[in-house]
Sequence to fold (299 residues):
Amino acid sequence: MATTKSKKTTRSSKSRATAARTKKAAVVQTPVVEKSGNPLKGFFARKFDANENILTIFKSPRIYGAILGEVLGTMLLTLILLTLGVYQPLYVMFGVIAITMAVFALSGANLNPIITVGMMASRRMSAIRGVVYLLSQVLGAWLAFLLANAFRTAAKEPAAFPQMAEVAEGQFWLVTMIEFVGAIMIAFFFARALAYKRSTFTFAAIFGGGVCVTLLFIIVVSSTYLNLQNNFILNPAAALMYQILPAGGEGFGEVFGAICSALLTYVIFPMAGGVLGFYLADFAARLSGETCCDKCIKK
Fold:
C-alpha cells in the first residue's frame, strides 16, 4: 500500500515538473533593449583591409581589374556628360545605372572623384587605392574627351565641342554652392546604396535614381530661380575635360585667379561636398541603429 502511494507521489511530482517546464517555455521572453551609446563612437574606424598599402596593393591582379573598370566606366560616363550634359536627367540616370552594373564587380563603380574622396574620408577605402582611383578617373575622362573630339573633327563641317558656360561676375558663389549641394546629394545616395550592394541592380538603381533627383534639383534651381544655364557638371574629372581652366588673360595674376576660381567651383567644393554626404549618411545610419557589416569597397 505504501509502495503504491509512493509511486503516485513520484508520478505527481514528475507531472508538476513537466507542467512547470512547459509553462516556462510558453512565456514570451521580453527582449532586452540595450542602452544606446555614443553614436560617434568608432565613427572613423577603418572599414578597409588593414593589409592594403602601397607595398601590397599591386601584388594582386584585382587592382588592375579595378583600375580598368574605373577608366572604362569613367570614360563612358564622361561621354554621356560631354554629349548630353546634365540637362537630360532621365538619359543620364539610365546611363549611370547601366555603367554602374557593368563595372561594379570590378571596382565598386566610383566613377567620380566626389565618391572616391568620400570613400577615403569615411575610411571605406585606403589612401593608396583612392589615389589610384582618382588618377584612373582623370585618365578615363581624358580618353572620353579624345574619343568625342575625334568623332567631332571627323565630320566635314565639325560642330563646336560643347563647353560649359563661363561663370559670370557675381555668380561665383551661386554656381559653387549648387555644385557643393549637388555633390552632397550624390555622395549621400551612393553611401546609402552601399547598404544594398549585395544586389548590384538595387545598388545601381538607388544610385542612378539619386543622380536623377540631384540633376532635377540643380536644373530647377539654376534655370528657374537663378537664371543660370550650362554651368554644372558634378564630376571634377569630367569638369577638367570641359576645359574649365582658362588658358589666357591680361596677366599672370588674372589667369591664376581664374584657375583658382574654377578649381574651387568644380573640384574642391564638390569633393568637400562628397565627404559631407558620406558623413551625413553614416551619421544617419548610426542614429537609426543600422550597422554595417560589409566592407565598403570591392576587390
Summary: The longest helix spans residues 252-287.
